[in-house]
Amino acid sequence: MRDVQNEKDHRMVPLKKVGIKDLNWPLKVLLKNNGYQSTVAHINCSVDLHREKRGIHMSRFIEVLNKMEMITPHVFEEILDDLIVTMEAKRAHLEIHFPYFVWKESPVTRKMSPLKVDCFVEAERSKTFSFKIGVKVPVHTLCPCSKEISDHGAHNQRAFVEIQVKTKKFIWFEDLVEIAERNASSPLYTLLKRPDEKFVTERAYENPKFVEDVARDVALELERDNRIAWYRVYVESMESIHNHNAFACVEKGDFILEG
Questions:
Q1: Which residues pair with 157 in a beta bridge?
Q2: What global pTM score does this model have?
């Protein structure tokens, strides 16, 4: 059969990324407390294309991905190395997004329930191997200004903290979730009984934070973590009394710690 993709292209225009997108794929994620969790990942996968090649063989992406069962840096590096050889490319890129459930205990009644967190992994292989992970964690924020000017209560809302990191050492998704929750007005829980609701409400009231506060506090904790080489923090609040959202963003290198 004629191999049309492998024909020579005379326009001589190299392409940086050519691949497949929006592929759903079953995968396993290692748990910090042993074992693994099954999930369905959303995958984008690509390679560069030499200027003389007309196209790539899309089916080869699937053949290579068939070897991927578990999410680990080592597995990603092997997959990208395989893609470079199979596709005769100099650079390969793999990005996956997936839901991940963290089991949490309510603060007073100790009831267990799962909290959904959105996670992602992005890796690229060229002359070197680059690996980035991230989480998007739902949290609770309470407005310091509203608390200050109100005789009763303060407006509060659900928000999310998105953390992306490149690491020097292995770090668990759970570790990033804990960093996000620690620096919000309060964590969120799927299951709360009345004593838990009272605790969470009062905790947030005593710990008011703007999105700016959360972004800065998360960044400072990441800055001091010797496992992390680079980070980006994005915080967005789904405002409860405004017809818009509020957000704040900071990336490593945007500021320098003194002392």
A1: 141
A2: 0.91
